[in-house]
Task: structure prediction
Amino acid sequence: MTTVDIPAPTVDPIVAQGRPIASPGSMNVDWEERWNVDRLRTYRLGRARDALASSDLGAVLLFDFNNIRYVTSTHIGEWARDKMTRYALQTRGGAPHIWDFGSAAKHHRLNCPWLPVENIHAGMIGLRGAVAPDAGLFRDAAREIARILREEGVADMPLGVDVIEPPMIAALEAEGVDVRDGQQVLLDAREVKSIDEIILLNTASAMVDGAYQLIAERLKPGVRENELVADVTKYLFDLGSEHVDNINAVSGERCSPHPHVFSDRIIRPGDQAFFDIIHTFVGYKTCYYRTFNVGSANQAQRDAYKQAREWIDASIELMRPGVTTDQVAKVWPKAEEFGFANEMECFGLQFGHSVGLFLHERPIISRLNSLDHPVEIKEGMVIALETYCPAKDGYSAARIEEEVVVTRDGPRVITKFPSDELFVANAY
Result:
C-alpha cells in the first residue's frame, strides 16, 4: 500500500484580504506566482481524502471525468468523456489509483510524478457495452479493485461509486464488494475552492469577457446565431481554452420560451438576444450569460432586462458565508409569476449553482429544491447565479448570469462584461 501525507486543506486568505483576484494570462511563468499547480493538486487530493474520511465509505471508485481529474490530476481529452472506460480508485489514506485508456497509462507513468508508478494501470471495461460483458473485462477489473481494497485494508467497508455501468456493479458485488452511492463524497470535497482554483475560474471568465466584446462588435442584422457560435469558439481556442463545452445563442422570437440551444436563425434589427458561454480552462469552467439588443430596444425589452437585473442583484447580495440557499431562492419569483406552470417547468431559469471542474456543483439553488432542503453558503464557494425574464411583447426575454466568489467580506463578481444596463450592440 502506498500512502501519502496531505496537509489539511485551507482556503487561502488572499481573497478575503480585499486584494484583486488574479486573472493572469493563459500561460504559467517563472517570474510571478499565477496558479501553483503542485498546491492545486495537493489541495484537491486533501479535500477528497477529508471528505472520504468523514463518510462511512472505505474508498470511492470514480468514472466521472471531472472526479477523476480532481483526485488524480490526469486528463486525456474530451473525446473520452462519455466512454466510461477511464476510472480511478481512492482509498482512505492511500494514494490514488488510475486505470486509463491504452497507452495513456504509459504516458502517465512518464509524465505524472505525483502519482506512484505502481498505481498507474491500463484499463478497459467495454466502451459502454461495445465489448459485451461476457468478454470478462468487467469481471477482471472488479477482481483487481477488490484485491486493492484488501491490500489497503478497506475491503470490509462499503465502496462508493459516482457513475457506473450496471455490469460493473454486478461484477463488484460478485467479488463481495458492498457498492454504495459515492457521488456525495466528491461533491462535499469540491464545494470550497482554493485560491488556485479561484484564479483559474477567474482567468476562464476573463477569456469570456473578451468573447462578449467580440459578440458586441459582430452582432448585426444578417449574421446567424451559429456564425457567432463559430466565431466565439475559435476566439476562445485561440486565447487558450482547453475545451469549448457549449455556447447558447438565442435571438428574436426564440428567446421565449428559452430553448437552450443555438440555431441558424438570421439576426434582425431590434432583436433581443442572449448568450451563454461555457468553456474550460485548465479544467475549470465558466457559465456566463449576457443579453444584448441589436441596434435598438423597445420598452418591453428594457423592462424585462431591468427586472432580471433586480432579481440577480438581490441574490448576489446574499452570497455571504452562513446564508442558506432557501434565503437566496426566496428573492426569485415563483414560477407562476413569470409564465410557467410550476417550478419543475422553469427549473434552470431562476437558478444558482457552484461552478468548478463541474459545470453544476453544490449548492444547487432553486425554488424547486432549496426551500425544503437548504444548504449553507461557505467562504471559498464560487457560485453562478442566473435570472431570466420574459418580455411583455410575448417573445423577447432577458437572461443574465454572474459568477460570484464568496468571501468573508462579501460577494466578489468575476464576470466583468458590462451588464448593469441592457447593452445595445451597434446602435442605430
